[in-house]
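Why predict the complex rather than its parts? Because the way molecules touch one another can change local conformation, and only a joint prediction can capture that. The input here totals 1271 residues.
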Amino acid sequence: MLPIVLPVDTGDLTALGPLLAVLIAALGVLTVDMTFEREEARGRWSFIVGLVGAGLAAGCASLWQWEAPGRAILGGALYADAFSSFFDVLLATLLGLTLVVSWYCLDRVKVKPAEFTGLAVLSFSGMFLMVRAADMLTLFLAIELMSLPVYVLAGLSAGSKTGREAALKYFVLGSLASAILLYGMALVYGVTASLGYTDIAGYLATASRESGVENPLFLAGLALMLVGLGFKVAAAPFHMWTPDVYEGAPTPVTTLMASGVRAAAAAALLRFLAGAVLLTRGHWMMLVWALAALSMIAGNVGALAQTNVKRLLAYSGIAHAGYMLLGLFALPRGAGGFSMYVAVYALSVLGAFGALQWFDDRGRETVDIEDLAGAGKRHPWMASVMTVFLLSLAGIPPTAGFAAKWFVFAAAVQAGYVGLALLGVMTSLFGAYYYLRVVIAMWMDEPADISGADQSPTTGLVLGLLALAVLFIGCFPGWLWFLADLASSKLV
Amino acid sequence: MGLETLIALVVLLPLAGAALNGFFGQLHGKRLSGYLACAVMAASFACAASAVAGLSGLSPASRSVTSVLYTWMDASSLRVEMAFTLDPLSGVMILVVTGVGFLIHVYSLGYMAHDDGRVRYFSYLNLFVFFMLVLVLGASMPVMFLGWEGVGLCSYLLIGFWFEDAAKATAGKKAFLTNRVGDMFFALGMFSLFWATYQAGSGTLAFAGLKANKHLIEQATVGAVPLATFAALCLFIGATGKSAQIPLYVWLPDAMAGPTPVSALIHAATMVTAGVYMVARMSWLYQMAPGVMELVAWIGALTALFAAAIGLAATDIKKVLAYSTISQLGYMFLGVGVGGYVAGIFHLVTHAFFKGLLFLGAGSVIHGCHGNQDIRKMGGLKDKMPWTFWTFLVATWAIAGLPPFAGFVSKDEILYEAYNSPHGSLALWLAGVVAAVMTAFYMFRLFTLTFLGAPRMGKKDFDHVHESPAVMTVPLAVLAGLSAVGGALNLPGGIAHALHLPRVLSDWLAPVFPVEATAHASNEWALMGASVLVALAGTLGALHVYYRQKTVPVADNARLTVPVRMARDKFYVDEAYDILIVKPVRGLGRFLAGPIDKRVIDRVLAELPPAVAYWLSARVTSLQNGNVQAYAVVLFGGTVAILAYLTLYLR
Amino acid sequence: MHFDYLSVLVLVALGIGNVLFMVALPKLLRPSKPNPQKLVAYECGENPVGTSWIQYNARFFSVALVFVVFDVEIVFMFPWAVVFKSLYKTQGCVPFWEMFTFVLVLLVGLAYLWAQGLLEWVKSVRKA
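Output of the joint prediction:
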């Protein structure tokens, strides 16, 4: 009998808990899918396993170690710190919510529940890996682990041409972005001779200006990496895929793409910028400035004329990427506003897509603003819930979106980027306009012809609670800000 | 219970009543809502009485107790507490407000018994009392302003209580808008006082703090004008709005559209006296601005004259009383304007008694006559409504200034001050005396036409006239008693001296007002005699014309002399305001709404930006042609741009 | 100097030479009996006539993917197998369990493919 010795110390394993929980859940879903004979049973059990995985991931998030200093584990491949814990909780919440709000709609978009759950959980395992990646190789691996299932998910809807188109576009452009990212990583590695963030930061600190901070090769690598990560958070001008893919993919998948994928990519971006290349912020801050400005303009202006809610939310998501980036200006102090914005945006947009799915009671997806006409009269409660999410996305008090915007704008103003903050405020006006168009359609227009299929009360309840949470955060943003700031302040 | 708790209770009880009725009134029912409102008023009055009793137990110098509820606003340089100060002056006021208020609440039980909006009515009435108490007890100008605005709001709500009637709703609006003009100046005065103290590094708006920083305010100027003068003037303009003085009195006659108890409480006894109270409260400021004091006195005297003249010709029972109120308020301003603060407050108190009584009596008459308000169609009600008749007589006696009732004592004191005070003059005194003649005349005219002589209404109508229920007549009797003996509160100096009796109100208020005692003049008896004589003259004149000669005012223009016609038409002030202010403002509004807003604003500012935005949106989204290669090109373009930027940047 | 790269140059030359040699040798040795079937570019069952933008049977891709997965597995296992003996001396059975886990994960994937019927060329439709 061979002695059983754990390959890593238990502390490291604890830190890996959420990741392992989700990975095991992914394997579990696969197992369930091949074990049960009947389609319903497969779907139900995989759903349960996925939810249990999300719950375990949330439970394993090392919240009790908030105050502990961050450290690298597994030979410097991963970090275990408050930042990853913060995002563990967020991602676990997003995973659970994505499964719940999508559950009853999968039939309508002709997606097999077990396949959806399996791929979603697998994709989330990539995200859990991503938020704790401590070197470029792990980061790349995580990004691919996250993206590949999403490519598949986008095209999962049987017989949906737009879904297939979306999947192909996403895949082709995503591969391109991955290639660019990888090229950037190669250049950075070529200059610094290291993969780990800490080592890169160390190299930059010790090397001369010519060979380090101002090395053109290094900066080119950095720029290419920014492009790759910018693609994942859908910042302009790397956003072109977003509207088509969000519109074409089945709404449950769009929900996942808009919330989970965005959140994880943003977390990885912040970790890389703060942890590895903070010393060159003089260079990339201007790039972030340009990306933020372009995103806010392109997103908000683009969303203005949309009549398709999914497309509208896709464009507005580009704008939100811009607002998010404003939070980066708080660096080198903790970019708490950034993390908070990511969390609030992910929750709000998930709620909005979730409510949108809840409304598709006509045997097909709700996609156009017209489809929502009169929703306030048919389903006043759910319309209120949807309104809360839209107001939060528009950044109107007393919702969480307002508080989050406040913090990122404050970060930009404090860093002296008053003009950019002003641009943000002004483009937000656009946002108020197009979000309110949806709200107005729901409350003031006459109801469209509705068959009134059964809606899940459980989903409604969950969305209602989420809306309450959004309002709660809006009224008492302090605690979330505190956590986000605490989590983000130790990255540097 | 500590004094602070009592003060807070005085204020908060009516608020609780208003909230209970307002929020749950429909649940606990219409009957209960009235009793609830009366109960909180009784409790509030009891608290007020014990608080004032407690205050009188303190030494005169320390009679000022402040109860801080919480910090209202704290903006570093400006800190305002939600605090209430009980001192002799506010003590008098809360007794009047809660006492008379309680009686009027009880009266309302009967008067509003058949109205469907009772719950709303009592809720508003309680709310009004709450704001009135905030106004008089407020320890700082913002708190007072809160009450000031609050009573204005309740006044608006209650004037337009029967809002289904467009004219009544309009009357409410008129009151509100006219008051806004005054309120703006009040706020301006408040800001200027803050500015003066803030400049000197100790910004405050608390009355105590302002008074302590008197010297700072005295030194400050606004342009070439001393700040004290500026602030006093602004505050006084505010007072002319709330207290219906020239030039902002026009809303009060229209305010009679509200239920009659409301007219009694708000538009006679309490709210309209807020301006007088405010001037008295800020007496130290007015002492620093003698010019403004003179203006106050003259405005008061002129208003007294002017309104009395209109009252001579009015034929609506409530309108007569409304103009009478304006006129009596003018007396009060005359009093405080010449530095006779005690006299002004004294008249305020007695006026609350007898004018409250007159309105309630008028309400009783209207109630008995089933809504008829025209005195030309009354007459002979004496036997039908004995309680109302006798109490009305007492009130008329009092307001006419006939001894020995309350009105005589307090009015006499104002006239005495107007003549003898360092700020007074013969002209002011004369104006007061002439107004007194007219007051006696129009009051007895009203009285005679209403109660005496033969009935001028149809027989059937007359048969239906009935005395009001006890719930209405008992408050009348109580107020009649107060109107009769209220003068004892502050006996004329000579009488008090002769009989060795104390002058209660003067002694009580002594710590509050600037010591500028008017010399005890030997002409007191002569002035008193003169005022009795003129009152008698007016009374007898009215009785002669309307009782002996049985004259009845006519509506026919041809048979009226020009002055009477002018007086009946209120000297065309409303029409003048309409032409001079309302029409031009409305014209400007039309111009702005029409050509400017529709053509310029809507086209340029409201339609152009969306058009541009939509155009941009179309451009941005047209990039989105669905072609993956194009997307890739944009992605590469961005990448190249970033790389190019970095290269250029490094150069 | 750049003389260090001489070895690379030699390697490149050897590579090219080797390919040429391997192509040239059969030409000398084999009998030449061409027929149309033999002359097509690819002898793998697909008819190469027409445009190359045709839709391949999706089964090619799934099989290729499965192949790649296990190909990569071998890539990871090979070095592990080489050093396993020395690892066992220092770390006991830990490296074994590590690789076991790795293979287990892939095994679940393989089982899933199998259950889905992707290993059969003619895919059997599962009863729903």
